């Protein structure tokens, strides 16, 4: 990036343009995003409740699913509440500190989800390919360590990503053509060369996207080989059905994130970036509990048992 003149006033706040290009639909968009947010909170809240209270769901797979639901609630909460406020406000400003905090939270929960999805694929690998040792390998302590490692890894990597996003001078303009403070759009406003910053962010993206995705690929390669060696078609279908939900979630989340952070900057456009970000930052947290509940007999059974008790109370 060419350097901009440095004799301009340092930026202390940004303006999030969001969906200002469709000004006559702000009320409708507010209602839409509020509905999405409430559905996300309700869906993931139900998953957390079911996996915490139903003894039939007291297994490593559902322990990790509960962590995923907590992450998804935090993930969407890092962006949508701010967006809802801006729909109702005439000013769409956000301070530099608030912008950096939002960026940190967004990265932290997003990277944590990357790691956790890889852990969940390892859990399925052990359950299907090494079932006799499953309870020994995936004991309570091991599950807690794997989950904690995902959270700690996500929050540590987010420090690096946030520092390299905001450790540049901003001296105008200060309009971010996005609905939240996402790194590529923020760096476009820097008035200094951001080559090193972009290189670091790209390198971290490789680390937190490609390496976990490779672990998912290796796990499912072994799972597929095991399924193909099963003697009955019914056994193959039943075993694969336990992985289908996770594979769907992995495809949705990793696909959109890789497209966003691992393509050349010259191919980025604000409108396209907004749509991609909307998909993995807002839509994916909403549909994850639906994917896991609609395709899972154990979750549906727990929900059928839980709903009457809830309604009676």
UniProtKB/TrEMBL annotation:
Record family assignment: Belongs to the G-protein coupled receptor 1 family.
Keyword set includes Membrane: yes
Alphabetical UniProt keywords: Cell membrane, G-protein coupled receptor, Membrane, Olfaction, Receptor, Sensory transduction, Transducer, Transmembrane, Transmembrane helix
Superkingdom of the source species: Eukaryota
A GO cellular-component term linked to this record: plasma membrane
Domain G-protein coupled receptors family 1 profile, residue spans: 43-292
Membrane-crossing residue ranges in chain numbering: 28-51, 63-84, 104-122, 143-166, 199-228, 240-263, 275-294
Molecular function terms from GO: G protein-coupled receptor activity; olfactory receptor activity
Record's protein name: Olfactory receptor
InterPro entries reported in the protein's UniProt record: GPCR_Rhodpsn, GPCR_Rhodpsn_7TM, Olfact_rcpt
Primary localisation category: membrane
Localization of this protein: Cell membrane
Topological category with respect to the lipid bilayer: Multi-pass membrane protein
Protease is among the record's keywords: no
